[in-house]
Design goal:
Elements (H helix, E strand, L loop, with lengths): L6 H27 L3 H12 L9 H23 L1 H4 L3 H7 L6 H18 L4 H11 L6 H15 L17 H21 L9 H24 L5 H18 L3 H14 L2 H6 L1 H8 L8 H18 L4 H6 L2 H15 L5 H18 L4 H16 L7 H18 L2 H5 L4 H5 L4 H17 L7 H10 L1 H4 L12 H15 L7 H15 L7 H22 L12 H16 L4 H17 L3 H17 L4 H17 L5 H16 L4 H11 L14 H26 L6 H15 L7 H16 L12 H16 L1 H8 L4
Helix pairs in contact: 1-2, 1-3, 2-6, 3-6, 5-6, 6-7, 6-8, 7-9, 8-9, 8-10, 9-10, 9-11, 10-12, 12-15, 14-17, 15-18, 17-18, 18-19, 18-20, 20-23, 23-26, 24-27, 26-28, 27-28, 28-29, 28-30, 29-30, 30-31, 30-32, 31-32, 32-33, 32-34, 33-34, 34-35, 34-36, 35-36, 36-37, 38-39
């Protein structure tokens, strides 16, 4: 009837029960004031009869119970004072057993029993045994649970534990343990029985009610964990076997899960460690529907924290072979619970790995063993699609990185990449990014080709498309961040031995070349610069480094670079390829490899001619070519003439006249290099400047034809500054008259435009240049003499 009742009915029944308690409590208090024992017992029994109801849910029954409990506290005070009721406590103990109904009788008996034990007129163990046995008379689950909870509460401070006033010859700690265990056993039976009452249609409500009552049962285990005198031996021989026997035999999912959780939480860590085998054996005997993974996870977390609390306890873990026992138990649980979802197995592996990294950080074989078991489990499912399970796998793979702060250690784990193979593409990339971030954070250097091979297998999700996925679907910002991370990683690969470093470069190149057209522009440049660093290292070592006995030679490395950049130029990404060719040419020049440097320049010019069509890109490219060629001094006369002729020719063919002018006067530096061994062909440098001046004049005429004015004189001022530079450097073909005529030309251009209108503004650049010339004239000496002939 109660199970089908509504909330309003329950509220009404609760109100009626509370009213009944209050009514009888009133008469009970009046009898207490009058010290009338008979009336006290009469009205207290009537009051407690309200607890016989079967209509209330556990929550409502608890409210009613607490009302009665408050009254029982005052009743206990009365029973303690023999002068008020006039009966010895032994007679009182006998008298209350004559109450008409079992439930009021037992509450009164427990209350008097508490006073009886307090008086020490009888061994407390006998009273406890008597009470716990007689409570069996109440077999209604809810009423019985609250009754036994009351018994446990009033007897808690009277247990004969070590240090207690109730301990003596007749009372031992074992008696206290026996009482709590017996009460726990009976309460658990009552709790489990709830599920078998009523029709199956109210099963959900029953589960809810049982959850509300579970703490009443769990308090017994809490008391067991607090009893002074329960040492490891007693716990191992008596307490744990009795509790686990009840847990396993009850065959109830909720009870088994909750009680195992209680055992793990209330007893000391060192007890768990010493009884690990027994505890784990019980875990494997639980019902298949029990969530064993949470139980084992909590156990391993507690043991992990215990191990981390002090280094002194680690030897205990070795003595009991904790890892082997936990590993075997987890294997059995996963094997027997066929229906366990993959997330459950992964959670167990993560907890076991966390435990291992804390207790046995030096045992990499244990870590690899866990990863291997994970691979076996993952291989049994067609495809890992559970996002939560995927998250646990990432946690599993991240744990060694966080513990060792060194990817090199993780690279020695043979099963690490096999676990990563089971991740989907998105998660694989996330894990790859975590690996790279770990390397950057800890500044780890990967120094062997074998480890680089393993590393790039781990991060292959960032290096190439997996399972035919299209990079076009990726967010551009995310894609760039991923590739920039790979680029940074390449700079962390290093080895002082040239042969090994060359192997590393070849391994990296092999992987990067599979990356596709979108990735190469990000990943090839750091590879090229890493190889160039090796070239300069070899060059700095000196000696005969090009012999056949040395595998890592600059010439061999340049061959690899040429092939690599050639792939990049076909992406197409010609501007980047051209820059890299020029970098290689400069490095080849430093190694005195003229044919190699010439070949790189040739490739750069071919790219310029065939691939670079944008006018702005052409301007940038030609200035890069000119700047690089100017710094290189390895070429003979013939090769240098060929290259400089090409550079000046391309400069003069740029689309815009100002761009032509600037590129041509930049070419003047190709014929006058201000180094000790640099070329100094003053005549050809002057020819470049004069050619630039003609182009500047043409630009002014074009501006006048299109806009009606000659435009600014910036180009003339720039050319003037080039004249001054070469004049100061001692070019004999540039004379003061050249400077004078150019200054006058600029002044004329600034004074008026072609329509005869006078300009009112001056060019700041020109003004600054004239100020520099005046400053040089005022210096005196050789510099001053040079500028004396120039009239401003």
């Amino acid at each position: 009837m109660r199970r089908l009742a509504g909330v309003e009915d329950e509220e009404k029944w609760l109100a009626e029960g509370i009213a009944g308690i209050q009514h009888n409590a009133f008469f009970m208090h009046r009898a207490l004031d009058a010290n009338n024992l008979r009336e006290v017992l009469k009205y207290s029994a009537l009051m407690l009869s309200e607890l016989r109801t079967s209509k209330l849910s556990p929550q409502k029954y608890y409210d009613l119970y607490m009302r009665a409990f408050d009254q029982l506290r005052q009743l206990e005070v009365f029973f303690k004072d023999e002068s008020r009721h006039g009966l010895p406590v032994v007679d009182l103990y006998e008298l209350v057993q004559h109450a008409g109904n079992i439930l009021p009788r037992m509450y009164l008996l427990c209350t008097v029993g508490s006073v009886y034990m307090k008086s020490k007129q009888a061994p407390s163990k006998d009273v406890l045994k008597d009470l716990v046995e007689m409570c069996r008379g109440v077999q209604h689950p809810i009423r019985g649970l609250f009754l036994r909870s009351y018994l446990a509460q009033v007897s808690r401070d009277k247990l004969p534990e070590i240090g207690s006033e109730y301990e003596g010859d007749a009372n031992t700690v074992m008696d206290a343990v026996e009482f709590v265990l017996q009460n726990f056993t009976e309460m658990n039976k009552l709790w489990v029985r709830i599920q078998h009452q009523g029709p199956g249609t109210v099963r959900e409500k029953q589960e809810k009610e049982r959850n509300e009552l579970r703490d009443l049962v769990g308090k017994n285990l809490h008391v067991l964990g607090q009893i002074e005198g329960v040492d490891l031996e007693m716990y191992k021989e008596t307490v744990l076997p009795r509790v686990l026997e009840q847990v396993v035999n009850c065959k109830d999912e909720l009870a088994q899960y909750y009680l195992m959780e209680c055992i793990i939480q209330v007893f000391p860590d060192e007890y768990h460690l010493q009884t690990l085998e027994t505890l784990l054996a019980a875990c494997t005997q639980l019902m298949p529907t029990v969530d064993t993974k949470i139980v084992l996870t909590q156990l391993m977390d507690r043991l992990s924290n215990y191990a981390a609390s002090s280094p002194d306890v680690l030897h205990e873990f070795l003595q009991v072979e904790a890892f082997a026992k936990l590993s075997n138990a987890i294997g059995k649980v996963i094997e027997t619970q066929i229906e366990m979802p993959i997330i459950g197995a992964m959670t167990l592996f993560v907890s076991l790995l966390t435990f291992t990294l804390r207790v046995h950080p030096d045992r990499l074989d244990y870590v690899d063993q866990i990863l291997g078991a994970c691979v076996v489990k993952l291989s049994s499912v067609p495809k890992l699609e559970d996002a939560r399970a995927m998250k646990q796998v990432v946690a599993l793979l991240s744990a060694p990185l966080e513990k060792y702060n060194d990817i090199v250690t993780a690279l020695t784990l043979s099963n690490y990449p096999r676990v990563m193979d089971h991740l989907d593409d998105g998660t694989n990339k996330v894990m790859a990014m975590l690996i790279i971030q770990s390397i950057m954070k800890n500044n780890s250097c990967i120094s062997t080709a074998d480890k680089v091979e393993v590393l790039f297998e781990l991060i292959k999700g960032l290096i190439k498309d997996l399972d035919g996925t299209d990079t076009e679907e990726l967010d551009e910002e995310d894609f760039q961040e991923e590739q920039n991370s790979v680029a940074r990683l390449i700079h962390m690969l290093d080895n002082e031995e040239p042969e090994e470093m060359l192997k590393i470069i070849c391994v990296v190149r092999k992987h990067l070349m599979t990356g596709g057209t979108r990735r190469l522009p990000f990943t090839v440049p750091p590879l090229v610069f890493s190889a160039l660093r090796l070239v300069r290292q070899l060059d700095s070592q000196g000696g005969d480094i090009t012999g056949e006995e040395v595998s890592a030679t600059p010439r061999k490395i340049f061959q690899i670079l040429n092939q690599t950049i050639e792939v990049l130029s076909s992406v197409p990404c010609p501007e980047l390829a051209l820059r890299l060719y020029l970098q290689c040419a400069e490095a080849a020049s430093d190694c005195d490899l003229e044919p190699v440097a010439y070949e790189f320049f040739t490739q750069a010019f071919i790219l310029y001619e065939e691939e670079i069509a944008d006018s702005k890109a052409q301007v940038t490219a030609i200035h890069l070519i000119i700047g690089t060629l100017q710094r290189i001094n390895v070429f003979g006369v013939e090769n240098r003439d060929t290259l400089t002729h090409k550079a000046t020719g391309y400069s003069a063919r740029l689309l815009k006249k100002p761009d032509q002018c600037r590129a041509v006067y930049a070419c003047s530096h190709l014929f006058w290099v201000d180094d000790i061994d640099g070329i100094k062909d003053g005549e050809r440098a002057l020819l470049c400047l004069r050619r630039a001046l003609r182009i500047a004049n043409a630009a002014q005429e074009m501006a006048n034809a299109t806009r009606g004015s000659s435009g600014p004189v910036t180009l003339f001022v720039e050319i003037l500054n080039k004249y001054i530079y070469f004049y100061e450097k001692g070019n004999p073909h540039i004379t003061p008259s050249d400077l004078q005529s150019l200054i006058e030309l600029i002044n004329t251009e600034m004074q008026s435009d072609d329509n005869g209108n006078r300009r009112t503004h001056s060019d700041p650049f020109f003004t600054s240049t004239l100020r520099y010339i005046r400053f040089q004239k005022q210096k005196g000496g050789l510099i001053g003499d040079k500028y004396d002939l120039i009239k401003l």
